[in-house]
Amino acid sequence: MENKKRLKLAKEVLSDPRNPKEEVQALQDTIYVIGGKWKLPIINSICNGNKRFREIERSIPGITTRMLSRELREMEANLIIKRTVTDTIPVVVEYSPTEYCYTFGDIILEMIKWGKEHRERIKKDLSSEL
Amino acid sequence: MENKKRLKLAKEVLSDPRNPKEEVQALQDTIYVIGGKWKLPIINSICNGNKRFREIERSIPGITTRMLSRELREMEANLIIKRTVTDTIPVVVEYSPTEYCYTFGDIILEMIKWGKEHRERIKKDLSSEL
DNA sequence: GTAACCAGTATAACAGAGTATACCAACATG
DNA sequence: CATGTTGGTATACTCTGTTATACTGGTTAC
Description:
By secondary structure, chain A is mainly alpha-helical. Chain A has helices spanning 2-15, 20-34, 39-47, 53-59, 65-77, 99-102, 105-128, and strands at 81-85, 93-97.
């Protein structure tokens, strides 16, 4: 058992090509940053060209002004988006993506893909149940 | 303004190549299924070959037995994983991925990629601040 | 025989994510 | 002049995900 343990440890630390420890941490980091119900939909909306507060709000089913306001503030602080106020009359507030914002693109794309396939699967399951 | 509205509506419904409405919904569906702190790390762990309860637990920093127990039960019910009990003495409980489980692979991969790059960025930012 | 490992369950409590509803000032629209 | 839009804030509440701590019954190693 002593030997087994030592063997396992060596295996773990040295020869594993996809270092699991590093990957779990990376995964958990990502979840920490984009966790919650709203951040990714908001990023998606803004990257899709929505700029105004109400516009973004309308583009995300179920979100409340309060949550949108909170998340936007937080994401601006974290440099994920930029908030611009014009000095026209009336003032116009616009949100725009930063470069950092686009780094989430691939994740969002994969999640959209999964979501679409998920719907397909459910449709098929329902129709085959008849 | 009447015309503007009608134009916008038509544009929205017809000619948009990446139908935003469908995509937001797909995105929100996905978040609904894999939302929370633990589901993806657990899926990742099991897909990486971890089978035993304590093994999975040890592979995910910060998780408690309670959360792992709950999530495993839920994910078994949703057919994301399979739970097998042998009738040996002592009994051995093993968790294994279903095919469905692997459909999250691309999402997890992208999130691991993002997490790693995120660490790199932070490292660079810190070193450039000196 | 005692310490440790396995696969969890029990209980209690908390923090904060999320909801609901109302409200505001400034401006535009008809 | 009434109604609607914009960009939010205020208040209060719920809910549940998450944590913390302890415990169980069986097995195995030293």
